[in-house]
Design a protein that fits this description.
The complex is a heterotrimer. Chain A is α+β, with helices and mostly antiparallel strands. Chain A contains eleven helices and 14 strands. Chain A is 37% helix and 26% strand. In chain A, strands 4-5-10-6-7 form a five-stranded antiparallel sheet. In chain A, a hairpin with a 2-residue loop joins strand 4 and strand 5. Chain A starts with a strand and ends with a helix. Chain B is an alpha+beta fold. Chain B is 29% helix and 26% strand. Chain B is globular. The chains are: A alpha+beta, B alpha+beta, C alpha+beta. At the B-C interface, helix 1 and helix 17 of B face helix 2, helix 3, helix 4 and helix 5 of C.
């Protein structure tokens, strides 16, 4: 590894200041599980390392203003253990459990995983399906961007060199007597059980209870295109349809035709169909179950 | 034989305390004053001439103490000195033949400086056309990888035993199939590492993660051109071997050269990437197998063409291919055999010994095809195997004598029984299946003119405690523990009375090392003889004191007494004490040497009985195939082994379980990816060995049929347990979904393609 | 560039001046001479370098030493208390869960972190917890059995 200068800012402002000064020569250190590997392989031109671990309040998971807010230092493990997440967003926990190994989940942060912009990042499809947004700050401005719009290319984001992501926000779906929602994250590993993801599918769907009609559907697919993608054609087909095994099968087939995998293309296409169909069924089942739960309460 | 008190017991590994506490030292843990760090500059091209090497800038870098190229060495080729297959220099001279070939080496005061220095060496290459598979390499216009040869064939052997043509004519059915197996990496968890230093008068001391200190000593003396006595291999923990460390490799020679040049200790430790790209692998092979059978399943003849992808250098390629050929002739009774063996150079990393040594490749072909034959003939796959199984008294066409301990049929029956073979034939859901495969292997291989020997030394100190010296290394197999158990049993002491010294070529007697499933069989015999020798010396003293005949004496718990009268005894310490006037200052020394009663491998005829105890095994696998995703889940593997006598059942199970895991990886998950000779996945992320949650349930079954030649009846077990795994899984997959996969690894894509083809065939 | 860090390793405070680029693994092995922590791949894939950071299993090869400043670390050397083996170590010995021993320290520490968090794990939970630690010798059967036995013992 090459030598570099090292900073431990205490506030977000200090961190932003460093980034605005050193721009693309600087890298943020949070969990470090991806960055350290890149540093060792000298795959990054790192001159200034900005360790954000000493910044207060970045390790919080908060339920606030109808948003679930996850700070930049929250690790996969912390999210898995969070009772707030468990209650409302078990789908996110599902995605976190798909990430790496215990050791990686203990160190790696969710936002780090997002910022690494791997097309196979397991949490990204779920964030996209849930309509999550990233809070991005710099000395110049503050902005929020949909996770979905955050990626430019494999391992490339739209983040400017002086910007940092401080949190990811997930809107709570509207709850009332007429609608229920459900979601799931399903994935298959490349070869072994604990392996990179060959294909990951996150589903969010909202069902109008009375008619069993799909009101909202978001399908996000990982590892099947240069960046995590929405299966929009499949979504369009599904919205307005009734929940039904045949409909879901067709939804899966449409999604399979939307993807653009680079390697093992035929196999991935086949699996996309299988997995989307399966996941739609599971998400619908969960949605209906949650509806029953609401009613008995 | 009287009841055993140490042998056959599940005693803990004698190194376990130091291994669970982190106290156990491996080469990379060693630090010496003034120690330097060595790094190797490697070829970035698969095939090129070295036009020039400019080391000036590297030499000038502060902290660099030596920069070496082939010009600084005696340029002596190695691996089996004097042998026909020597083709490798520790540092490449004039030409590189694969990506990773050693071009230059540096020693510096710090690892980072050494890395930097390597990058400052300027090498001018003239790039040559390269070949990456045997088919290309065999074309007449292919570039010559070794200029002193007329083609890229490293070795070619054709042998016929019996009359194959005639036997095929007399067969009711003849089957012909093509099988292909991939390269496999050993993946020792400890990357290669060694520390070398020269002491006064040019004596080399080397700590190296090796299985065979004697080979390292012998080859280093040869490469450095110094006498054998000036090379001392030291004792150190070895983090896995599996064959990867049974012969000397380039780094050991380079480390010694750097130490010689600098006069300081030098440590070379590989990165995981170097480990994946430049250490030996299991040879990929293509096997065309033709088998003739009678209607009742009797095998009449086999003909095999085996083409081995040797990689850039021989190392042990031709020998590995030779073993594959011998397996074709020896697994089951095969009266007529023809084998054509071709070992072909390519511009890739090269193969070497790996657990099974050619056997897993051949057995995958044989056992897959035998399964197919059974199905075609409508014979139960277990029954066709038992029908053709090798039996006591048989001599295989290549001269292997099957001994009284042969438990092949028992293994087949046990494996089938325990997996529930019969029940699982009925009411089987599509997608679920069982498969079986057998294996023959040897305990020790008489392939060196030196013989197939081990020696051992027992010292009994004046307090009665015992030191056992063995020249073999324990790379994690528990061989030290098992050898100590043999010594303890023979002597009549408890295991905690024995301390084992191993590996040190100055302190321990000569031993060919830990490879070829030989340590317990050959080494164990030497240890038992040494213990017997020491015991006899004690008995001579005790006989006088107890006024008894030596033959009537017995020893237990470091006491000697007359058989049946344990209350009157003399302690070991008193016996040793009796040998010197002051009770201390002398010790009893027992020596043992064992050279197996076998014949040296005959390279002319290919026929010789090279091992005193063939070993057999049978594995049964149960699998579940996900018809939608094509993924295979192996539910369980029952591994039955005729091991003679288990010296330590826990250790034997450990060998079997670990080998099954490697066989599982070979069958399903492990594969190198290449692009023009460059390895694209030199890490555990891309080269996938099984993890905890991949492993099926493993049931190890020990079929104990005493071998009278083995120590307490024991035979080898280390290698065979890997051999039948892949075909057992492949056969189970056939049973589950009717798809035959003839190439490894078995991937979901191959399964889905097979299912699709079957469906189309049904429609047609 | 160097920085003075304070780390508590196995209950003992160490002050070390470390180069910025050095990993916790390197500092543990080379400066503190705690060589029980092994370097098997240096890329966070094999688990041989696993240590406990504030009680959690982590790959020490993926942590910069300066990032560990002010934190508490347990290495395999810290498990032996007054010459007595930890129940897990004892279990590894008794169940023969060791072959070459190179993965053993990391394996035991991963198991230790699991049992601290979940004192009576199922076999499946043990397998998941140890999936970040590779072993090429044992096939894992005896390792999983040893952890299960240790959990039932305590």
């Amino acid at each position: 590894m090459k030598n570099f200068k090292y900073f431990e800012p205490r506030t977000i402002e200090e961190a932003c200041h460093l980034l605005s000064r050193y721009k693309d020569k600087a890298k943020i250190l949070a969990g470090g599980t991806d960055l350290l590997v890149q540093m060792k392989r000298e795959a990054v031109d790192l001159r200034y390392l900005v360790n954000i671990k000493k910044i207060d309040n970045l390790n919080c998971i908060l339920s606030q203003d109808n948003l679930l807010r996850i700070g930049a230092l929250v690790t996969h493990k912390e999210l898995i253990d969070s009772t707030v997440v468990e209650k409302d967003f078990s789908i996110l926990k599902e995605a976190c459990l798909a990430v790496g190994t215990v050791q990686i989940r203990n160190l790696g942060t969710l936002i780090g995983n997002i910022c690494n912009a791997s097309p196979s990042a397991d949490t990204v499809p779920t964030f996209i399906a849930l309509g999550a947004k990233l809070k991005i700050v710099s000395t110049r401005r503050e902005r929020t961007v949909l996770v979905e719009d955050f990626f430019a290319a494999p391992f490339q984001t739209i983040l400017e060199p002086d910007e940092m992501v401080t949190e990811v926000e997930i809107p709570y779906p509207t709850l009332n007597k007429c609608f229920v929602w459900g979601g799931c994250y399903s994935w298959l590993p490349k070869i072994t059980t604990t392996d990179e993801t060959l294909i990951g599918v996150a589903i969010f769907l909202e069902i109008a209870l009375e008619r069993g009609r799909l009101e909202q559907v978001r399908i996000a697919l990982g590892s099947v295109a240069p960046t995590v993608m929405r299966a929009r054609e499949s979504e369009e087909f599904l919205v307005g349809n009734k929940i039904d095994a045949k409909v879901f099968q067709e939804g899966g087939q449409i999604a399979a035709n939307e993807i653009a995998p680079r390697s093992r293309a035929e196999y991935r296409r086949h699996l996309a169909g299988v997995l989307v169909e399966k996941s739609l069924n599971l998400a619908a089942e969960r949605a209906l179950r949650s509806g029953q739960f609401e009613e008995t309460n | 034989m009287s009841a055993l008190s140490v042998v056959g017991k599940r005693l803990p590994n004698i190194d376990s305390f130091s291994k669970v506490t982190g106290e156990a030292k491996f080469c990379n843990d060693l630090v010496f004053p003034d120690m330097l760090f060595g790094k190797i500059l490697r070829s970035p091209y698969p095939h090129a001439e070295i036009v020039s090497i400019d080391t000036k800038m590297a030499v000038k870098l502060p902290g660099v103490e030596a920069v070496m190229t082939a010009q600084d060495t005696p340029k002596i080729k190695y691996v089996h000195l004097g042998g026909a297959y020597e083709d490798k220099l520790p540092l490449a001279d004039k030409k590189v033949r694969y990506i990773g070939d050693e071009v230059a080496a540096v020693a510096a005061t710090d690892e980072k400086i050494a890395e930097k220095a390597i990058r400052l060496i300027r090498v001018k290459y003239k790039i040559l056309p390269a070949v990456f598979n045997t088919e290309e390499a065999l074309k007449p216009e292919a570039p010559l990888i070794h200029g002193d040869r007329s083609n890229n064939i490293a070795a070619s052997v054709t042998r016929e035993f019996g009359d194959v043509e005639e036997a095929f004519k007399q067969s009711d059915f003849v089957f012909e199939d093509r099988y292909e197996v991939q390269a496999q990496a050993h993946c020792c968890l400890e990357p290669r590492s060694c520390v070398a230093m020269f002491e006064q008068k040019g004596n080399l001391k080397i700590w190296t993660a090796t299985q065979s200190p004697y080979f390292v000593q012998k080859e280093l003396a040869h490469i450095l051109n110094i006498p054998l006595t000036k090379v001392r291999v030291m004792e150190i923990h070895v983090g896995g071997g599996f064959g990867a460390r049974s012969k000397v490799c380039e780094d050991e020679a380079i480390c010694a050269f750097l130490a010689q040049k600098t006069g300081k200790p030098v440590r070379i430790t590989f990165t995981r990437e170097e480990e994946f790209t430049t250490t030996r692998i299991r040879h990929p092979m293509v096997i065309h197998l033709k088998t003739g059978v009678k209607k009742d399943g009797t095998i009449m003849a086999r003909q095999a063409q085996i083409i081995t992808d040797n990689g850039a250098y021989n190392h042990m390629g031709p020998a590995v291919t030779g073993v594959a050929g011998s397996i074709v002739a020896s697994l089951y009774r095969v009266p007529n055999v023809k084998i054509e063996l071709l070992t072909v150079y390519t511009n890739k990393h090269f193969g070497g010994p790996f657990r099974g040594y050619g056997n897993p490749q051949a057995t995958f072909a044989i056992e897959s095809q035998l399964d197919l034959i059974a199905r075609k003939l409508g014979i139960d796959p277990v029954e066709i195997r038992i029908k053709n199984a090798n039996r006591y008294g048989d001599i295989t066409p290549v001269g292997w004598k099957i001994t009284e301990s042969c438990g092949f049929s028992e293994c087949l029956r046990e494996a089938a029984d325990k997996i529930g073979w019969k029940e699982k034939q009925k009411d089987k859901p599509f997608g679920r299946g069982v498969g079986i495969a057998g294996c023959i292997h040897l305990s020790g291989f008489h392939v060196y003119t030196d013989g197939d020997f081990s020696s051992a030394l027992i010292k009994i100190f004046s307090d009665g405690s015992v030191e056992l010296s063995v020249g073999s290394a324990d790379m994690g197999t528990w061989s030290k523990t098992a050898l100590a158990q043999i010594a303890a049993e023979e002597l009549g002491v408890t295991l905690d009375q024995i301390r084992v010294v191993s590996m040190d070529t100055e302190l321990t007697p000569m031993d060919l090392g830990s490879w070829g499933s030989r340590v317990i069989f050959i080494g164990g015999n030497a240890v038992r003889r040494a213990a017997y020798d020491a015991k006899w010396q004690l008995f001579e003293i005790a006989a006088e004191k107890l006024e008894a005949n030596i033959e009537d004496l017995d020893s237990r718990e470091s006491r000697i007494s007359i058989k049946g009268a344990p209350q009157k005894y003399i302690k070991f310490s008193d016996c040793v004490g009796a040998t010197s006037p002051h009770k201390v200052g002398n010790m009893i020394i027992g020596k043992g040497h064992y050279d197996s009663p076998t014949e040296l491998a005959n390279r002319e005829t290919g026929v010789s009985n090279i091992s005193a105890a063939p070993i057999f095994a049978a594995h049964a696998a149960e699998v579940e195939v996900d018809l939608q995703t094509g993924r295979v889940r192996v539910l369980r593997i029952v591994a039955a082994h005729d091991i003679g006598k288990a010296i330590n059942p826990t250790a034997v199970e450990g060998q079997i379980e670990g080998a099954v895991a490697q066989g599982f990886g070979y069958a399903l998950t492990e594969q190198y990816e290449y692009e023009n000779g460059k390895i694209l996945n030199p890490n555990f992320l891309g080269y996938r060995i099984p993890r905890t949650n991949d492993m099926p349930e493993i049931m190890a079954i020990l079929v104990e049929k005493i071998d009278s030649e083995g120590p307490f009846g024991a035979k080898g077990v280390g290698e065979p347990a890997l051999v039948p795994v892949a075909p057992a899984i492949a056969n189970a997959i056939y049973d589950a979904i009717g798809v035959r996969i003839n190439s490894l690894p078995i991937t979901p894509e191959k399964i889905l393609t097979g299912l699709k083809n079957n469906a189309q065939r049904e429609v047609a | 560039m160097k920085k003075l860090i304070r780390i508590v390793v196995n209950g003992k405070l160490f002050k070390v001046r470390v180069d910025y680029y050095r990993t916790l693994l390197e500092v543990l092995r080379e400066d503190l001479h705690l060589t029980g922590t092994k370097n098997g791949c240096n890329e966070g894939e094999c688990g041989a370098c696993t240590v406990l950071l504030e009680g959690k299993a982590v790959y020490s090869c993926l942590i910069l030493a300066l990032d560990a400043d002010g934190r508490e670390i347990t290495t395999i050397e810290g498990l032996l208390k007054e010459g007595k083996l930890d129940p897990l170590q004892q279990s590894f010995v008794e169940y023969g869960a060791i072959q070459c021993g190179f993965c053993t320290p990391g394996m035991i520490l991963s198991a230790k972190a699991l049992l601290e968090e979940n004192p009576s794990p199922s076999e499946g939970e043990i397998k998941t917890a140890l999936a970040g630690n590779l072993c090429r010798c044992t096939g894992y059967k005896k390792i999983v059995a040893a952890v299960l036995a240790a959990s039932q013992r305590s």
